[in-house]
Amino acid sequence: MVNVSEKIESIYRDVISRNPGENEFHQAVQEVLESLSQVLVKYPEYADQKIIERICEPERQIIFRVPWTDDKGEIHINRGFRVEFNSALGPYKGGLRFHPSVYLGIIKFLGFEQIFKNALTGLPIGGGKGGSDFDPKGRSDAEIMRFCQSFMTELYRHIGEYTDVPAGDIGVGGREIGYLFGQYKRITNRYESGMLTGKGLAYGGSQVRTEATGYGTVFFVDEMLKAHKDSFEGKNVLVSGSGNVAIYAIEKVHELGGKVIACSDSNGVIVDEKGINLQLVQQLKEIERRRIKDYTQYEKSARFIEKGNIWDVPCHIALPSATQNEISGKDAATLVKNGCIAVGEGANMPTTPKGIKVFQDAKILYGPGKAANAGGVATSALEMQQNASRDSWTFEYTEERLRQIMINIHRDCYETAEEFGEPGNYVMGANVAGFKRVANAMLSMGLI
Ligand code: GLU
Fold this sequence. Notes:
Layout: H1 4-18, H2 23-33, H3 37-42, H4 44-48, H5 51-56, E1 60-69, E2 75-86, E3 92-98, H6 104-120, E4 127-132, H7 141-155, E5 164-167, H8 174-188, H9 209-227, E6 236-239, H10 244-255, E7 259-265, E8 268-271, H11 278-287, H12 295-298, E9 303-306, E10 317-319, H13 329-337, E11 342-344, H14 353-361, E12 365-367, H15 369-372, H16 375-388, H17 395-419, H18 426-444
Parallel strand pairs: 3-4, 3-5, 6-7, 6-10, 10-11, 11-12
Antiparallel strand pairs: 1-2, 2-4, 7-8, 8-9
Helix pairs in contact: 1-2, 2-6, 6-18, 7-8, 9-10, 9-16, 9-17, 10-11, 13-14, 16-17, 17-18
């Protein structure tokens, strides 16, 4: 019999050689595979049926040209992606990211994580992701609209409410979803509400979807704290980023009695010891689309650290909510040294493998993204549910559904980690609980 860890090692080597240069994808796969040895010992049928090998290969990968013209009439060519990773549990589901760093390796890491995240929600959604290397920064509304229309002119043929349901991610929010939905409706002549989520409330969107990722992350961390008889009360919190995830994480931390003392964008860090003024951040970022630096023009107590590192600010709790690999091993060591007791990932894969090791060795509470930030996609699935029944729920009811889902995800991760002999290891708990759900569905369906 081949030793289980050798088997996993060889699967990982194959993933690297079949997907050269896709470093973020390799990193995401490695993190999941490292959690699976006990599972293969307990369920040899997963190995016999090559479930891991199948999960690591996307069901379908679409790459396409996106031509568009800017306001001066100049033509630009971007590259569009949609990776339909796994549909064992439901239609492919996952956001679109518009950012200049996007290439196939980023979309595949996000799509791969999405499979397990979506499984953890307990709702019927498969995993996928898409996007483009388009840079929305500094573009006018009209340029954004033309880009979205061109993007959808190719994407529409691959998606649909029973096939693949995109949503937002970095660079794609309510405005972009509106343009994408409009173009889909126009091309297909179908008012198919459930083919996109994150829609506006005026045309089939769900209450709480905008807030869901940030709120959900805070609910998850609250559950980790409760399991240790602790709470947000009186804690100083860092929230990196100042986009959609960060803004609503800040709001919920404040509601639960914590104080967010810093947030950031790609230019630097705002530190405001009396507590971040959320309304001001919202006005600057959501409404005026300005840089976080301008915060100090209105709040004299705050300071801006140009190109600063938010993780150098002492805190009790850290919520990385900006982007992948934003916490290095060194940053993690600084956080631990400064007394950080809990980390909840609002972003996808924000902690490097070295950083994760530091948190785990220090035995602080560490909630990985695929569990902690699953509230966003979970609420997308609630949006699909409302669309399918042509219904719309109240804010209070939807938020309570989200809170319950986050409580369940926490419990699943916690109990799975105990069952597999690593109590407190939320990374292994999340990976194994998500993996088992997908694997069992795949086993039932035969070799597909
Ligand atoms: N982009 C989000 C995520 O990383 C949400 C995806 C969705 O709502 O489909 O999970």
